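Lab notebook: predicted structure, single chain.

Context: the supervisor wants predicted structures on file for every construct in the current expression panel, including those that have not yet been purified. This is the next one on the list. No modifications to the sequence; it matches the entry in the shared construct table.
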Amino acid sequence: MAMVAYAGPLGNATTLSAAFAASPAATTWLLSSMSVGLAVGLLPAGALADLTGRRRVFTGGALVLAAGSVLCAVAGDARTFVVGRVVEGLGAAGVIATGLGLVAAVTTDPAHRARAAAWWGSSMGLGIAGGPLLTGLFDLGDLWPASYWLIAGASLAIAALAPRCFTESAVDPGRRMDLAGAALMAIGLTALLITLVEARRGDAGIALTGAVVAAVALAGFAVAQVRRRHPMLEPALLRHRGFTAAALAAVGTGAGVIALMSFSGTFATGAMGLSSLQAGALLALWSATSAAAALLLRPLALRMTGTTQLAAGLIGAGVGLLMLSGLGGPPSAWRLAPGLIVAGVASGLLNGGLGRQAIATVPADRAAVGTGVNNTARYVGAAVGTTLVSVLAATPHASPAAQVAGWNHVTLLAGAISLVTAVAIVAIDRDRHAEEAR
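Prediction complete. Output recorded below exactly as produced.
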């Protein structure tokens, strides 16, 4: 459900932009705003869950997701809708940061946890496939708010069922929440996104101010994590090469494949002339394939190390994204299909690997923080990547030729990000093995 909420505007961004008479900058925020909420909320949600109980944060996250969805449904302007999307992101952060940890708590058996991670990755793919299809169906009747009412109702049902489905996790009463760290991270990431959006508008003053605020806040967050007794992100975790590789893979996933797929619906409805439903169906070639591959490739993944699984997924995703480039003339859905399917298969392998490494590279009592860090990295990458893609690609109001040229540029960028990230995590893993040999 969190991914349905996240992916909904990917299929009908053009409809939302028209409904709110949104400027190009506002349209960028329509796509990026939930990623901001996720990026800001995931790590604090994970830390809070390990301190107060994962089930409690999971349930609270579902309630906040419902509240944000209601705000989106009643929004009368772009600003209110963006606020609702940020609230949705904060609620989804509570659900995502704790869900995998709650499932992993059932057993310590590595094979069971790998299966759980595969199902978790598959559910993400199914949600991303379902979101644009849902909004596309409601668009047929000019009823786009209905999808947000549906998400709100489903989220309330999830909150009601959680106490029956999960036992509460153990908590550490000796730890304290790092409120200063959470505030610094939230300020830094929000300022970074403002910088990118305002740079596109050409407002150098606001962009420069945002860049300075982001740099100061994120530097302050790093210092606070080193000096505080109970940091939100223990520096010791960052010295674990497997943890670092998994976080880097998550950033590359967000900035590469997720960012490009977040923009694909806008391209499909603008340059290709597809309806919202048709754009959602086209995107499902990637997302539904990802959901199936996460399960079907599980036996293969169990024979790989975690880092190998991540590298293989990123390489496959990079190849698939590069296959989407080189469009000319009126673009065809059939021309995009092979690349979307290749990227989907690789994303299924990649999502399972991210879930696997998120809990395998941290102590058992810090599983929610591990999941929170990994997903924070993913959605920081997605927020920054989506903004960059929107900045570099032509606007939906440009000519079809300009939109196709912009698409060709951003597909090359996204593919390169995926491949470079794969090389980087292989290098990190090789250094780890060299250190162990010494």
